[in-house]
Amino acid sequence: MGAITMAEVGIDARRFFHPQQETMPRERLAALQLARLNATLANAYANVPVQRKRLDAAGIGAGRIERLADVARLPFSVKTDLRDHYPFGMFARKSPDLARLHASSGTTGKPTVVGYTQNDLDHWSELMARSLFAAGARRGDVIHNAYGYGLFTGGLGAHAGAERLGGVVVPVSGGSTERQVALIVDFGARVLCATPSYALAIAEVAEQQGVDLRRSALAVGMFGAEPWSAAMRREIESRLGLRAVDIYGLSEIMGPGVACECERQDGLHGWEDHFLFEVIDPDTGKPLPEGEAGELVITTLTKQALPMIRYRTRDITRLARERCGCGRTHLRIRRITGRNDDMLIIRGVNVYPSQIEAVLVGLPGLAPHYQLVLERHGSLDALTVEVEAASGEGLFSEIQKHVSHHIKSRVGVTATVVVKQPGEVPRSQGKAVRVRDLRPKVT
Ligand code: DLL
Fold first, then answer.
1. What pTM did the predictor assign?
2. Could you report the per-residue pLDDT of 413-432, keeping only the tens digit for each?
3. Ligand 1 pocket: which residues have CB below 6 Å?
4. Is the bond leading into 87 cis (omega within 30 degrees of zero)?
5. Ligand 1: which residue has its CA nearest to atom 13?
């Protein structure tokens, strides 16, 4: 039987960066996943003693998995594995087969270190280029990359993808926001890569300088690395005059480009030819039925240096397998609403910072900058929400009443609201610090 061309099944290859892979029929995608999953298990078993022990204990040993559903029999991996086996204990390759290391910022003890072979780096840049293309970036675009360069995967990850796409990359990294505004305008950036909070900081500085970025060439924003709300998307789109696209990733799995929205902005396509996605109940560890919210678990299917089996991301989301109107067959990950380890429990109420953000961003009179401060008063948790007035003129007491009323009615917690003068809430140059948890640690 001859191969069927994409034109014969009505697929316009020009709409995709990897037309074959992105539009692969789901049965073929599943067969590819199964084969690659078994290759990943073999790599982990042969080269990572910790994984070998776990696979033996799970009764899988060096054996094969026969059906994708059997992935539920495999042991989980967690973030502390990387700390416990610091620095390279989870790696399946050593130097000279390694081509690069990245690491988390290491604010809590040892950093988590991740590694890549050249082959891994090639896949990463392909997937990042695929993500940029899906979001609307094209060859020849000036791509302003304000993700931090260095050990953080954002800067170099987006950079390599932008080069692979054929873009003109501007590697500015974070910081010097006034200069960023000038470069965006002068170089004619069409694509902006940044955290959503930093995109807003850029918008704000531009406005202060009297520069209207809505009239610049900016058309596409690739925003991720931290949770953000639909309200924040609208805010960024209206202030920067671009299409704000959500991009997801994590260092332990690869970096940015594990999943990305297409131009329809209706959920992030998880690139299933390279990753296997599941959602589990975070308490029981059991897989959840399609569409239910739970913890995202990811298995790498092509990584050589750091094969991850059922990595518990702690990110809370839902999966949708119905076909997207864009023609891509890969599933969609819904907006990440938060992490089950940054979930705040305030007087018994579970609260995600992103829920409070969704309330704040929609309210008049406020600048889109805020911090949540948690303290313990006696035996009770106390939440203070520091918000920032959009102008120094407004009636702060009115704003304050309005904000606490909306937080109470929409999130269900009582908060003391402090309205700060414009510019008083600290700005981020990378991931925003949204929560200052000053409560004594539970030991
Ligand atoms: O933040 C990789 C990245 C860089 C993604 C640039 C997108 C853009 P880490 O520093 O390892 O990697 O942090 C990963 O950030 O588990 C999520 O909790 C959060 N995160 C990343 N993207 C999103 C997103 C990079 N689009 C952790 N929405 C993840 C919500 C996100 N949270």
1. 0.87
2. 899 999 999 999 998 888 88
3. 147, 152-154, 224-227, 246-251, 255-256, 313, 315, 336, 339
4. yes
5. 250
